[in-house]
Amino acid sequence: MRSVKFVIxxxxxxxxxxxxxxxxxxxxxxxxxxxxxxEMGPADYGPGEAIGAPWxxxxxxxxxxxxxxxxxxxxxxxxxxxxxxxxxxxxxxxxRGIIHSEEPHPDFKRKGxxxxxxxxxxxxxxxxxxxxxxxxxxxxxxxxxxxxxxVWARVxxxxxxxxxxxxxxxxxxxYIHVRMNNNSVLEKExxxxxxxxxxxxxxxxxxxxxxxxxxxxxxxxxxxxxxxxTKDSSEFLILAGPELNEPIARHGPFVMxxxxxxxxxxxxxxxxxxxx
Length: 276
Description:
mainly beta; about 5% helix
């Protein structure tokens, strides 16, 4: 069974136009292939108050946005545009470059309400960093879910409780949203070679006698199985992926393998060839 190696607490930062996120400290250097985990909100906005992330570039990695509450609208330099509603997932592979915006939907901004969701960044292997950008959008109605023995799970990527996501990932990722009732147990097999972590954002869970509380990220040891227990209701994400074993050069929205590639990204962005 996997056990907890150590626990990282989150801190609050402000991103984009000033929206609040909870983020684990030092996330980017700890768990390949994940670069970032942001819990967006929860934030309760009044009419006209909601804010998002205006136009900005990405290169060399993937962003996965998962909505729990609220309504966002995205748009990009390739002419794509769409809405994100509760339960929806947008898996954006930036590849060689894309410029996009993520803003509250006009209807949501006008009325206000609760905004809550997650965005994670996943590093791309060197061989895929300059691939053409692509989107995969999975509405809540097509996202595989299961409820069994007091455990509810939405499988964004990977497998849980016998159901599997059909998302096409560039590296083998597990991304699962779990809710557990009082006195429940979840046992899950995970490939031993995958780095695995759990982020708790409601209640608390126990792994091998170690308690992980709301707002904490647990990095787990290696092993083929995971066993999670709860005394009270809880809610968390399971994230797992491979160790890429490649150098990382990172500056803001660009994640490459060398400083020269980062400089090239800035050059391409300035001269207008970034997203071509």
